[in-house]
Amino acid sequence: MTPPEIPVLLRGAKAIAEYLGVTAKHITHLHRQRRIPTINVGGCPCATTGALDEWRLMQAANGYGAGNAAS
Predict the structure, then answer these.
(1) How many CA atoms lie within 13 A of 8 on its CB side?
(2) Is residue 71 part of a domain?
(3) Cα(2)–Cα(58) distance, rounded to whole angstroms?
(4) Residue 42 lies in domain
(5) Euclidean distance between CA atoms 3 and 16, whole angstroms
(6) What is the DSSP string of 32-59?
(7) Interacting residues of 2 by C-beta distance below 8 A, sequence separation 6+
């Protein structure tokens, strides 16, 4: 049995964008509109990989593809 993966904290729009495969500008836009599971730490958007994975699954279930994540 393999242990569950420990979520990693991603700091900054660039790190989140690289994880999701979109642009940092898109992440900044989603963060400002509160359409992605991020928090603000010292003016910097942060998210855990676990929260982003769950969000991505919910987006897929609602019919959003990878190319238009929450558009």
Answers:
(1) 7
(2) no
(3) 25
(4) 9-64
(5) 24
(6) HTT-SS-EEETTEEEEEHHHHHHHHHHH
(7) none
pLDDT at 5: 82
What pLDDT, on a 0 to 100 scale, did the predictor assign at position 71? Answer: 47
**Cα–Cα distance for residue pair 53/71, rounded to 1 Å:** 17
The pTM of this model reads 0.82
CATH of the domain at 25: 1.10.10
* Nearest Cα to Cα of residue 50 among 37, 67, 32: 37
pLDDT score of 61: 94
Q: How many domains does the chain have?
A: 1
Per-residue pLDDT tens digits for 12-71:
999 999 999 999 999 999 999 999 999 999 999 999 999 999 999 999 999 876 555 554
Provide the sign of the torsion angle of the four alpha carbons 65, 69, 70, 71, taken in this order.
negative
